[in-house]
Write a structure and sequence with these properties.
This protein has 212 residues and is α+β, with helices and mostly antiparallel strands. Helix content is 27%, strand content 34%. It folds into 3 domains: 25 residues; 74 residues, Alpha-Beta Plaits (2-Layer Sandwich), CATH 3.30.70; 67 residues, Alpha-Beta Plaits (2-Layer Sandwich), CATH 3.30.70. The strands form 3 sheets. A 7-stranded antiparallel β-sheet has the order 4-5-3-6-7-12-13. Strand 1 and strand 2 form a beta hairpin. The chain is globular and about 50 Å long.
Length: 212
């Protein structure tokens, strides 16, 4: 067989393998089914609540080769920024790790696209214990995976918000899937932040869909 043909086939197989791997990593469970997400070239940064505007601006302006497309500094709402590619410069996992190293940053993750919806993940997900699962089992699982149980829902018994440390090897999306796959929970779902959910003309309009 022609050497050039072999190289082409190998390249195609490598591409399929890479796409399959990315697809398998970016999903969440909904009623037991996997819902796949497309990773974007944007990073969502969630800041510590008491971080002031000057600290945030100083952090996101460090790298002038990246563009800050959205920014919220309102003390009464979620403090966040969206950083994306600028020109030929693409964001990478190295950028995410650099942001995580900052004490002002709670979480830094790639954003995702699902059809027309742009969404972000933070450092939280929600689990509902099965009737056969104890709180101690949840606690042990959280400790094993560098997570912290934040609080129980005041209206729904055995429903908890779990926080993922930014030092963990897994982000909140991956951790939520890991918890669900143990079979200990009725569900394990992300606290997604959805952008332009009502197709507003205001580019700074967001609705945060948190489940407490």
């Amino acid at each position: 067989m022609n050497k050039n043909i072999l190289i082409t086939i190998a390249s195609i197989l490598l591409c399929f393998s890479s796409n399959a791997q990315q697809k398998s990593e970016n999903f969440y469970y909904y009623r037991g089914e996997k819902i796949y997400l497309q990773q974007t070239d944007k990073i969502y940064l969630k800041f510590v609540p008491d971080t002031n505007a000057e600290q945030i601006r100083s952090l996101i302006c460090k790298d002038s080769s990246l563009l800050t497309s959205k920014l919220s500094l309102d003390n009464n709402s979620l403090r966040f920024a969206v950083v994306e590619s600028k020109g030929s410069r693409n964001v990478s996992s190295t950028d995410i790790e650099a942001y995580k190293a900052s004490s002002e940053v709670v979480s830094a993750n790639f954003m995702f696209q699902n059809e027309e919806q742009l969404s972000a993940i933070t450092d939280e997900f929600v689990v509902k214990l099965k009737a056969t699962t104890s709180y101690n089992q949840l606690q042990d699982l959280a400790e094993e995976n560098d997570c912290k149980i934040e609080r129980e829902n005041e209206f729904i018994k055995n429903k908890f918000v779990v926080n993922v440390s930014k030092m963990s090897n897994l982000n909140a999306l991956q951790m939520s899937n890991l918890f669900y796959e143990t079979g200990l929970f009725d569900y394990s779902s992300l606290n997604f932040v959805l952008f332009n959910i009502f197709q507003s003309n205001d580019t700074y309009f967001i609705r945060a869909c948190f489940v407490f």
